[in-house]
Amino acid sequence: MSSNPQTSSDQTPIISVRNLVNRFGQQVVHDGVNLDVMPGEVLGIVGGSGSGKSVLLRTMLGLQRPWSGQVLIEGRDITQMSGAELLSVKRRYGVTFQHGALFSSLSVAENIQLPIREYFDASPAALEALTELRLRMVGLPVDAGAKLPSQLSGGMVKRAALARALALDPALLFLDEPTAGLDPISAAGFDELVTYLHRSLKLTIVMITHDLDTLLATCSRVAVLVDRKIVVDTLDGIMKNPHPWIQEYFHGPRSRAAQVSANGASASEVAR
Amino acid sequence: MTCPAARGRGQGVGLQPHLLILRASCVTVTDPVLFKSERTGDDSTLRLCGAWCIDNLPEMETTLAQLEQRGRYTRLDFSDIQTMDLSGAWLLRNWLERSRAGGRMAVVGKRPSHFAFLDELLEQKGGKTPPQQSADSSLRDAVVWVGRGAVQQAKQSRDAIGFFGRITMTWLRAMRSAHHLRLPSIARHIYETGIQAIPIVSLIAFLISVIVAYLGAQQLRQFGAEIFTVDLVAISVLREMGVLLTSIIVAGRSGSAFAAEIGVMRLNDEIDALESMGVDIYEVLVVPRLIGLLIALPLLTIVADAMGLAGGALLSSLLLDISLSQFIPRVQDALAPTTFWAGLVKAPVFAMLIALVGTYRGMQVRDSSRELGRLTTVAVVQSIFLVIFADAIFAIVFVELDF
Fold it and tell me: The ABC transporter domain covers which part of the protein (chain A) (predicted)?
């Protein structure tokens, strides 16, 4: 009774953004953005500074109401949801923020336990066990749990933030610039971790990133925010997109190194 | 036998997990029964079922606790489990590890797919958790506690002395040149701590003197000495109330602001940025606040004195039929030449205490937002305490000096 995973075309998207318009005063950030996030994919969102990546993420998370348009999670509009419904949706996704956003007055373990305590009545033993699991999942030593966020290195902060995002076993993970500010080796380690978790847990991951290496290493599809719109395609497809910003992004001087190191198909595409 | 629906669902998790995890993520699945046990002769089978996921965390815990007490099973069947997430798998796996130490169980049916992930995880990161260290002896703890406290106190005292010394040195240098004095910064602090505080200080001084006059008049009327209400208000406001209340308000307003501003700059690395540019942080952050408050607080005290007298005058004319033309000469009679100065001379001292405590606590903020809150509170409480304590000393000294 086994069948192959279905192709993405006939699956229902976990999140779909429909005709999203976001504006602050006179400034229009998004003008009719459409985006579908398919279950089980890793979607990378790129775009220049100020192109509204974070605003898009915040809108998808329901942290910010769109000017117009819809954000559907499993087919239901989050702007129309009641508080309780929204909570049950939020409970099933995990988010990491750009600077970690670990609660600075709590230890790493307490940070991870906070969402669990918030939702469930758990015994200390169970909390400890679950914390250990999360720490192991993100590759932190178990004794890192006792440390305060200020005692962690940048890479460890990102991992601890990921551990907290994984606290409630989410099916959907949002990562805002997960590798920003990390050295290339730590960043590569983080990419590996994300790919590993995605592959073994079948998580759906939406990731904002500036890091071409991360994009090439982890993402199956890429959404590019340009001119207040969004262009979504596979990695190879997007590289062939004629839009000047996209060309500059993927073929500019800073992208060369990334592509040289990227393997196989995508590198040969670039060569043409 | 397992029912076909449950089976299909269980396998579905393997096929298309993301969708099902999200759907079946068990907010709606309310099946608290997580196991069944069957006994046939010598064999006892433990049949796990239902939803082993984090939504059922309390149920999972009670189940595992029950299973622990039930004793041994010879066979274990996973096949009825509907959904399972990593948390469930982890707790179950931990329990299995523990119970296997007692007696072996034969596994029937497929092991949950998450177990493979967990096995891999444990292998990869090299084995078991280091065992927790057992509790130390209480005597040693007590000694450590006392020692740590003493060392911290010593450090704090040293820091406080160092802080005071640096301020003195910076100030001496600032006095020699206008550039080091940071006049725009001082002006800003005079505005923020002084001018912006005028409404609240006036209001409170006015109300307090009305209260004093009202209650005083009630008591003095019994002797027919209502006229002394004027003396009471004038002396109490000018000597004590004006300066003390103003200082307490300013400690609450500006002492906390000093600590919070400097503390947030610490948390944002702004202080390090200033130091790396070779800017003296005491010169730009501490001394301007200190000088600003030294100028603002005496001026605020004068405002408070005036408003206090106005409140007294108003109440006297309404309640005691003492008109303003009678009130003013009476006040002049009541006051010794030093009364006003006895109040005002305290203002700079209080200002210094408030500014020093506020900035010092701000500088102490390290690492976390909780520290910021704690030290801001400490700044306010300590500066109010010090103001009142200093006021008590002033009271004694002035009486002894007959001032």
Answer: 15-251
**Are A183 and A249 part of one and the same domain?**
yes
pLDDT tens-digit series, residues B117-135: 787 777 765 545 555 555 5
Q: Tell me whether residue A8 is in a domain.
A: no
Q: Do B21 and A171 touch (CB under 8 A)?
A: yes
Q: Which of B344, B375, B371, B373 lies closest to B358, judged by CA?
A: B375
DSSP line for B3-37: -HHHHHHHHHHHHSHHHHHHHHSTTS------EEE
Task: Provide ipTM, 2 decimals.
Answer: 0.71
Domain architecture of chain B: domains with CATH: 4-124 (3.30.750.24), 168-401 (no CATH)
B11, B13, B22: best to mutate for the A interface, most A CBs within 10 A: B22
Question: Would you say the pTM of this structure is higher than 0.90?
Answer: no
User: Residue B22: which of A92, A104, A143 has the nearest Cβ?
Assistant: A92
Domain that residue A161 falls in:
104-170
Q: Count of CB atoms within 10 A of residue B12's CB? A: 17
pLDDT of residue B133: 54
Task: Pick the closest to residue B24 from B35, B34, B33, B12 (CA basis).
Answer: B12
Helical H segments across B54-126, by residue range: 57-70, 86-100, 113-124
pLDDT digits (tens, 9 = 90+) for B186-207: 999 999 999 999 999 999 999 9
- Mean pLDDT (chain B, rounded): 83
Q: Are residues A23 and A50 in the same domain?
A: yes
Regarding beta strands A221-226 and A42-47, do their DSSP bridges make them parallel or antiparallel, or are they unpaired?
parallel
pLDDT at site A117: 83
Distance CA B385, CA A179 (A): 48
The answer to whether the beta carbons of residues A187 and A215 sit under 8 Å apart is: no
- Is the same domain home to A186 and A267? yes
Q: Look up residue A164 and give its two tokens.
A: 């907290």
Looking at this protein, which amino acid is placed at residue B396? I
- Tell me the average pLDDT across A76-101: 81
A171 with B125: Cβ contact below 8 A: no
Higher pLDDT, A122 or B289: B289
> Residue A38 has which token pair?
């398919």
Largest pairwise CA distance in chain A: 60
A218, A159: one domain: no
Residues A14, B117: C-beta atoms closer than 8 Å = no
Counting the structural domains of chain A, the total is 2
Residues A215 and A264 in one domain: yes
Beta-carbon contacts of B161 under 8 Å, excluding residues fewer than 6 positions away, are none
Q: Round to whole Å and give the CA distance between A9 and B55.
A: 31
Residues of A in contact with B121 (CB under 8 A): 136-137
- Residue A230 near residue A223 (C-beta atoms within 8 A): yes
The helix (H) or strand (E) run that includes residue B106 is strand B106-108
Residue B99 has pLDDT above 70, yes or no: yes
C-alpha distances (whole Å) from B170 to each of A187, B251, B260, B361 are: 45, 23, 22, 18
Percent of the residues in chain B that have a pLDDT greater than 90, as a whole number: 43
Nearest by CB to residue B58, choosing from A11, A120, A143, is A120
B369 touches chain A (CB under 8 A): yes
Whether the CA torsion B296, B297, B299, B303 is positive or negative: it is positive
CB contact at 8 A, B329 and B230: no
Q: Are A179 and A219 in contact (CB under 8 A)?
A: no
Per residue in A133-171, pLDDT tens? Answer: 888 888 888 888 888 888 888 888 888 888 888 888 888
